Amino acid sequence: MFQILVADAINEEGLSPLLDFNEGTLIQKKINDPEVELEKIDALLVRSATTVTEDLLEKMPQLKIIARAGVGVDNIDVNAATKRGIIVVNAPDGNTISTAEHTFAMMASLMRNIPQAHQSVKNLEWKRNAFIGTELYGKTLGIVGMGRIGSELAKRAKVFGMNVKVYDPFLTKERALKLGVSHGSLEEVLAEADIITVHTPLTPETKGLINEETLSQTKKGVYFLNCARGGIIDELALAKFVGNGHVAGAAIDVFEVEPPGEHPLFKYDNVIVTPHLGASTKEAQLNVATQVAKEVRMYFEGKPVQNSINLPAMSKDIFEKIKPFHQLSKQIGSILSQCMKQGVNEISITYSGTVTDLETSYLTKAVLSGFFKNRIDVNVNEVNALLAAKERGITVGEKISTNTFGYANSITVTAKAENHQFTVRGTFIDHYGPRIVYLNDFVIDFLPEGNMVYIQHMDRPGVVGRVGKILGDQEVNIATMQVGRKQAGGEAIMVLSFDKPLDDKQMATLAALEDIVSINRINL
Ligand SMILES: NC(=O)C1=CN([C@@H]2O[C@H](COP(=O)(O)OP(=O)(O)OC[C@H]3O[C@@H](n4cnc5c(N)ncnc54)[C@H](O)[C@@H]3O)[C@@H](O)[C@H]2O)C=CC1
Ligand SMILES: O=C(O)C(=O)COP(=O)(O)O
C-alpha cells in the first residue's frame, strides 16, 4: 500500500482519484504531526503552506513523488528532490483564471479605493470626496512575466480599454503579437506603465526584481500589484516608495513571509492586502486537487505523469510506444552493471532502427537507472540519472547508428573502465519480447528475466556437461541455457536461468570447475 500524505488543505472532492485508489492509503495530516511516520510516506501533496526542504526529504527515504496542488514550487527544494530521484509535479493551469481574476479585482479595488470605502461606510461614515478613484480606461498596465496568468490578465485589461505593455525575456515577438500586447524591456515597462503587476515565478533571477533602483525608474504616481510571490517586489523598498509618495498605491496578495505579522506596508491606507487568495476559489481548488491527485495515481499505476517539473512530459501514446524499450534499457543497464564489477568512467549508448523514432534521451536515463540500481544506495531513476552519472565522473554518450545488426532495432551499451570494457546489446521483437543478442563480444540470444548466471569459459568438450551435472547433483533446475562462442576451441560464454538464484556455495563450486574463466550472477 502506498502511503500518500496530504499535508495542506487540498479540496476533498478533487482528491477522489486517490480516495478511490485501492493501492494507496490517504493520510490528511500536517507534515509535523507526530502521528505522521515520515519514513513511510511514498507521496506528498502540498500547497504553499508546507515548505519541503532538503532536511525534510532526508527524513522521507521512501518518498517518490511530491505534488504541488498549484503552480509555484518555490516552497519545494526541487534540486534536492531531483538529486534523490523524487518526481515533482504541479498543477500548472488549474488556478490561472482565478489568479488572473483576483489580480484584476485587486487592481480595480485599488484604483477605486473599495476596501477603504467599504470600511468607512461600515464605520458609519459617508465620505464621498475622500475616495475619488482613477479609471482603468486608457491607462497603461505593465505586466512583468507574461505566462499563463499574465496573458489572462492582459486579455481582461484590454477589454477594459487599457494599453498593455509587457516584459518577459522568454516571450517571442509572434506570441506578443498574437496576444495583442506591446513587448518591451523592463526599463521600458517601468518608465511607461501607470500600473505594474508581476507574474513571474520566484527564482534567484526574479527575487527583488522590483527594488529601490527599479522603483526609481517608474513614473511618479505609479501603482504596484503583487499576486505572484512575496519577494519579487522588495517589500521594504516598496514601503519606502509608498511612504515618500512616489508609489500611489499597492495591492499585495503574497508576502515574503506568510503570514506576515506586523508589516511596514500595513500602515499605509493606500496599500490593500489579501492573505494569498489568488487561487482560493472553489473552481481553482477543485481543478488543482483533481490534477495532482490524477498525476499521483498515474505515477503509482506506472503511467506517464504530465506536469513534472523535473521530467520531460510524455503523452500516453508515446509512453506506450517507449515502454518496451524503456524496460529493455533498464535491463541492459542492470546486466552491464552486474557483469562489470569495477568502477566505470564512460557509458556510451548507440540506438538503431525503429527505436530512434522515440525519445532516446529518456531511454539513456533508463539505461543509467538500471546500471546504478544495486550499485549506489540512492534511488536512481529518470529524474536523477544524468546527475548521478555526472556526480560520479561518468561520461555518458548517446548516438544513433544505421547498423541494426539484422534486427528491426537495437540498443547497444558499452561501459568503459580503465583497462576494460563490456558491451551489451538488446533488441525488442514485436509479439516476442526483449532479447539480449550480444554480450561482451559474443553473439547470443536470451530473454533478460529472472535469476541468471553468466559464465565465461573455454570452448572445450565436457564444460557444458560438467556445469549441468554439478547443478543437477545439487537439485538445481536449469530453466534455460544459451551458449555463444567466437571460434571453435576459443573463449565461449553460457547464460543460464534458474527458478531461484544460485547460492554462494553453488557459485563457488561452478567457479572452481576446469575451463571456467569467470562467473557472475545476473538478477533482473
Ligand atoms: N497568488 C496566488 O495564489 C498564485 C500565485 N501564483 C504565482 O504566479 C506565478 C506565475 O504563474 P503562471 O503565470 O501560471 O506561470 P507561467 O510559468 O505560465 O508564467 C511565468 C512567466 O514568467 C516569465 N519569467 C520568468 N522569469 C522572468 C524574468 N526574470 N522576468 C520576466 N519574466 C520572467 C516566464 O517566461 C513565464 O512566461 C507562479 O510562479 C506563482 O508563483 C500562481 C497561482 C496562484
Ligand atoms: O499556485 C500557486 O502558486 C499559489 O500561489 C497558490 O497557493 P495556494 O495553493 O493557495 O497556497
Number of helices: 16
What fold name goes in the CATH topology slot of the largest domain?
Rossmann fold
Structural class: alpha/beta
Rg of Cα set:
31 Å
- Strand adjacency order, main sheet: 8-7-6-9-10-11-12
Residues in helices, as a percent range: 25-40%
Q: Kindly state the mean pLDDT as a whole number?
A: 95
What does this structure look like?
The longest helix is centred in the middle third of the chain and has 24 residues, at about 315-340. The protein contains 16 helices and 22 strands. It has four domains: about 1-90 and about 280-310, 3-Layer(aba) Sandwich (Rossmann fold); about 95-275, Rossmann fold; about 315-440, 2-Layer Sandwich (60s Ribosomal Protein L30, Chain: A), CATH 3.30.1330; about 450-524, Alpha-Beta Plaits (2-Layer Sandwich). By secondary structure, it is an alpha/beta fold. The two termini are about 25 Å apart. The strands form four sheets. The chain has a seven-stranded parallel β-sheet, sandwiched between helices. It has helices spanning about 15-20, 55-60, 80-85, 95-110, 115-120, 150-160, 175-180, 185-190, 210-215, 235-245, 280-300, 315-340, 360-370, 385-390, 465-475, 505-510, and strands at about 1-5, 25-30, 45, 65-70, 85-90, 140-145, 165, 180-185, 195-200, 220-225, 245-250, 270-275, 345-355, 395-400, 410-415, 420-430, 435-440, 440-445, 450-460, 480-485, 490-500, 515-524. The model has no long low-confidence stretch (mean pLDDT about 95). Strand 17 (about 435-440) and strand 18 form a beta hairpin. Bound molecules: 1,4-dihydronicotinamide adenine dinucleotide and 2-oxo-3-(phosphonooxy)propanoic acid. 2-oxo-3-(phosphonooxy)propanoic acid binds near residues 47 and 279.
